[in-house]
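Researcher: Going back to the complex we discussed earlier. I've cleaned up the inputs and rechecked each line, so this should be the final set. Can you rerun the prediction on the complete assembly and write out the structure?
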Amino acid sequence: MWSHKKANKLLASLAADELSANQAAEVQAHLADCQKCRNDLHRLKSLLCHTDQLRELSAGAEAVDTATTALLKTINSQSSQTQFAKSETESIWRTIMKSRITKFAAAAAIIIGTVGLIGWLMPGDRHSGLAFADIVRPILTARTATCKMTMNIEGRPPVICEGMFMTPGHARISFPKDTMGGQIMICDEQEGKTLSLIPGLKKAFIMERKNIPDDRSQMDPFTQLREQIEEAQKLKGGSAEFLGEKEIDGQAAIGYRMKDTAADMDMTVWADPKTKLPIRVETSIPTGSLTAAPMKGIVSDFRFNVEIDKSLFSLEIPEGYTKTTMPPIDRSKTTEKDMLEMLRIWTDGMNGSFPSSLKGFFFMEYIKSQKEKIEAKGHKATEEDMLPMQQDMMKIARGALFARQMPAESDCHYVGKGVKLGEAEKPVFWYRPKDSPTYRVIYGDLSVRDVLPSELPAVPDTQPSKPIGNKKP
Amino acid sequence: MSKQEFEKLVAEFSPQVLNVAARILGDTSSAQDVHQEVFLAIWRRWHAFDGQTNWTGYLYRATVRKAIELAKRGRAGPKTGHSLSEMPAQGDPLEPLRLAELQRRLAESLGRLPERQAAVFVLSRLEGLRHDKIADLLSCSPTTVRGHLHRAMRRLAKELGDYLE
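Model: Rerun complete. Updated structure for the full complex:
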């Protein structure tokens, strides 16, 4: 005869008539001697009997009519008051949804995509402001370079990557095995492609950037860095502060500090005073959260003009790897529509609240919130859960880029902190298009109006007073 | 995809969404709230859909998820004795009240289950779907479905024990 434990485990199957005749007989034999199991079975059968009755219930035709009418009324009402930016990006959800992206790869892709986005779409965020010609000359003129990149986030172990660069536009970044599964990211800016390899899983992800502006030389990260440095030298991106001398890893070093006012980030460059070669670049990037400490990045162990095998930058997928194509990153010029789309996605996902700021890694709050929502339901994020977030992140990045790339003469302001979606009289963002006599103002209901300078909203006391445009007139 | 196509989707699938929500939550008012939230969420991302979506599966999952979310927030159960318009005829005049009470308590208990178990239970016992069909909808195996269902049954039977005696 079966044990109590074995028989009890099969009671649900018995109640649902799922057991074979032999199995049912074994369970019944146990039931003859077990009151507890008989009680449990009775409750299970009673539960099924009652739920069978519920199955016959329906809402009714009148309820369907009422619900449909109310829904369409709501939609028509929203459509006449707000502008929904229509994305020109082709939807590739069909390809994504049919893929077998693992939870690890999806999470890694989002992290890489987000980190990669910062590098690709926001070139000023980490590299602007290296101000002094002598220190930065190797970066400006190097044909190849290698370095170590360390990212420190409070409460987590540091993530240390190895970076390799070769002009024009080739980059290879290797992530550690213990935190990122040994992922390797290879970028070819001329081709407009990024290949991510996860050796442990033999998976490869290809991401293409579409709508690349004609001047491809603008796109490779090394060239972007160089251009940012040259602009910083003209003091268009901020001001440099000499920090004096100190010792780093037993080596004498002199330091300069640059601030990127638009993104509220600062960068310190330490260089060897004799060779004038950079030793270490330190960055501090706010997360956009009021409670989380800023992220700290360190780039060190530079080597310039070393021999690097060009095949290391090949985008060919190694044999045995499964290939997945990720949604393309739109590199076209950002517009007001991108800002509106970003605000719509954000308020949709954050219970009607607007971002507190558009500075630094403000989008971390969004990622954190969406993940918490998924996990609050009692299960860890699945592939299906993570993929819409990646698409949303790309659109959020484009919206933020629109604001950050505003010239100083646009006099743009972001004042959305504390505003709730639907508050039609509260401004969220405004700017003056080039040569325009009026400002474009986005309000809390996502409507946009042209407003005379004399009628601009006063900046509320709680909002940051300095404009977020990047370039001084 | 156009607005007309969205309206067509609403017309075609509103009964499914409302019925599933009503069976979980026990009243048409709450079911209509679920209906609105589910379709509004789709409408906000309408531009991202490419006409290849399996709407039956998508809407089953979205509706079950939203209804259970409302159940967790304490929105479960009919406000009046029997607010569903088509109740089965029963000899016992108290039967509708018992059914209403069952729905309320079942919805509350479903809200306390892990989401997957709750979804499988609803799709199997309230919607009458087969295990292989549920496996397709939830992207898992029929064996996994069976496991979730039995765990859900045991837990619900335990939680509703007094009522089921």
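Model: Worth noting: The first helix of chain A runs from residue 4 to 9.
Researcher: Good, that matches what I expected from the previous run.
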